[in-house]
Design goal:
There is one protein chain. The protein has 325 residues and is an all-alpha fold. The protein contains 17 helices and no strands. α2 crosses α5 and α9 crosses α11. The longest helix has 60 residues. The N and C termini lie far apart (100 Å).
């Protein structure tokens, strides 16, 4: 019995070792074959995607305001994504060509495809869909996006939804509705809100008269229900977009408000416009250190002399004030 055990177990062990080695080699071979097939599939998809984007760009380049282009029918989200990416950096010749192209894209059936896509269960997919809608810059999506924002629970998707709204404004009054939607969640950062407002302002000025856009922005500044964060972001956006016509409205808004953030934002906005107002000069002698520092940094364009004011601030008990001076 000991002799049989001595022969059987070594043979069995050897067989198991050989089987393990063969299994490992076969698995390794299968892995390389699978990776090669996957790489080939990905490259083929990328090539197809690149060709479709280039084809869409060629169609866009041939668009004129007096001739509607023939667009391929959109049936899948991938096709819609290629259409949006092709449109992302397209340089419109004028407002008429923009309108003609947007109308042609709307007739491809892209709207129901994207609206169905934004209801995906995975937040990452919804986020991607919002980005595609942002690149399209079509007002036909605005109402649906705003409605979806009310029920969106993921903060990232919610923010991207508002960002998509900022490029899909149909009329100047839509920026008021967007501002109200942004007030719903205080978690949004001030820099994000500023970006949304700046994108909205640029989008509106491209297709609407300057006077009409300015009138709506003035109404937004005077709206009492606007949160402090969004009001501050709107003031800074107007300043950085250098809308000098609203400077007096911004100053009036700051004087009416008792909040430091509004006064500081107004000063920064005036400085971004290359302007100076008595609001800034008065801020140099403010008892609020934050307002004082903002005034010091914003008095560059004052037409009079402020050296004496600044010289006095060099003796301020606050190091931050002396440093800013």
């Amino acid at each position: 019995m000991e002799t049989i055990d001595g022969l059987v177990f070594p043979a069995l062990t050897l067989w198991v070792m050989h089987a393990s080695i063969y299994f490992f080699l076969i698995s390794l071979l299968a892995l390389f074959v699978g990776l090669g097939w996957h790489k080939h599939r990905v490259l083929r998809q990328m090539s197809k995607r690149t060709a479709l984007i280039a084809h869409n760009k060629d169609i866009f380049a041939s668009v004129h305001s007096d001739a509607a282009p023939t667009m391929p029918r959109i049936e899948t989200f991938e096709q819609a994504l290629c259409m949006a990416e092709a449109l992302r950096d397209h340089d419109f010749k004028d407002a008429n060509s923009r309108l003609a192209l947007q109308q042609a894209i709307a007739e491809t059936g892209i709207r129901p495809v994207l609206l169905q896509a934004i209801r995906a269960k995975e937040w990452g997919r919804r986020y991607q869909r919002m980005s595609a809608i942002h690149d399209l810059r079509m007002p036909v999506f605005f109402d649906s996006l705003l409605e979806h924002a009310e029920s969106e629970e993921n903060l990232r998707v919610y923010g991207n939804c508002l960002y998509a709204c900022s490029s899909s404004l149909g009329k100047p009054e839509d920026i008021q509705r967007l501002s109200i939607a942004m007030d719903a969640k205080a978690e949004l950062s001030a820099s994000f809100a500023e970006g949304v407002f700046r994108t909205s302002i640029r989008a509106l000025l491209k297709v609407h008269s300057t006077e009409r856009v300015h009138a709506v922005l003035a109404d937004c500044l005077e709206r009492k229900e606007t949160s402090l964060g969004n009001l501050s972001a709107l003031i800074l956006s107007i300043g950085k977009e250098r809308i000098d016509a609203l400077a007096s409205t911004i100053v009036a808004c700051a004087r009416k408000s008792e909040d430091t953030i509004i006064k500081v934002s107004a000063m920064r906005a005036l400085h971004a416009m290359g302007l100076c107002d008595d609001l800034i000069i008065e801020g140099l002698s403010s008892g609020n250190t934050i307002v004082q520092i903002a005034a010091i940094r914003s008095c560059e364009y004052y037409a009079g002399r402020v050296e004496s004011n600044l010289a006095g601030l060099l003796n301020s008990p606050s190091f931050d004030v002396r440093y800013a001076t």
